[in-house]
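Re: beginner question about structure tokens

> Can someone show what the tokenized structure looks like for a real chain? I only ever see the sequence side.

Sure, here's an example I had lying around. Input first:
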Amino acid sequence: MRSPELVCPAGSLPALKVAVDHGADAVYIGLKDATNARNFAGLNFDAAAAREGVRYAHSRGRRVLMAINTYPQAGDEKKWRTAVDAAADLGVDAVIMADMALLDYAAKTHPRMRRHLSVQGSATNYEAINLCRDWFGIERVVLPRVLTIDQVAHVIANTDVEVEVFGFGSLCVMVEGRCLLSSYATGDSPNTAGVCSPARAVRWQESPSGTQARLSGILIDEYSPDEPAGYPTLCKGRFAVASETYYALEEPTSLNVIELLPELLRIGVSAIKVEGRQRSPAYVTAVTSVLREAIDSAVAAGDGRFHVKPQWQQALGRVAEGQQVTLGAYNRPWK
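And the corresponding structure tokens:
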């Protein structure tokens, strides 16, 4: 079986280096602005760091992909076009984009630069993917995490565009590319501002019962003194509903597809992606190391017996959101 490319997150130069050092075939990065969907303070790359990251990865035979995957705003389109020009100047191996006008700009201005359709493009069927291939020359699509294995296989069977799927990382209650939930609280959509809970809207307050996390004044969660506090997002907050306080929209958990690797290889997935540019280099190290070993093991097993090692699941469980994992839509029993 052909080994899929392992694509790992790099929210910083240290994260990029540990991903490369621990077995990533490619890393994906973003600039320090709203052109990428992980626009958190303290993350991402300026020109100097990006250039060093590209040099470091290329010198070791690895690829760098740049996410320019938010949607340009009217009157400010130049910022997004400048990001595309910067990617070309840096010599990245591909740009990951969602907006069709921006894809068109990249195709016409930098035709030799490889283009991937971002998960933010929300393409869940082969017709949409083939349209973007015909119009904008995309060579890969990142599928939203809402499809079953059979649906992914159906897409692959009906397009010659490479298909990339998520293999590990935080899940989202929304279909990627269609999230507007946080804009109700903050005025900023992650599809435009690049972050679902902008730092300016986040407040931590101590109370007699613990630490309160608020988003634009809205109480999102309250943590007891001995409970680890998560970053507040509306979709993963705990709310009082019918006299019970719980995760009303989505419980924190991480996608983990290690046990499905033989099936993903069989249907011809071209790349397996790790979510988490907002996570630490330690997270990147742990997940990259495990997935590298697991993918190599699945490829070596071929059609034979693939064993999921307990230590793989233990290592991933420690860095999973909420310290729990799921197969997500891949194992959805309904159509």
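Each token stands for a local structural state, so reading them left to right follows the chain. The first helix runs from residue 13 to 21.
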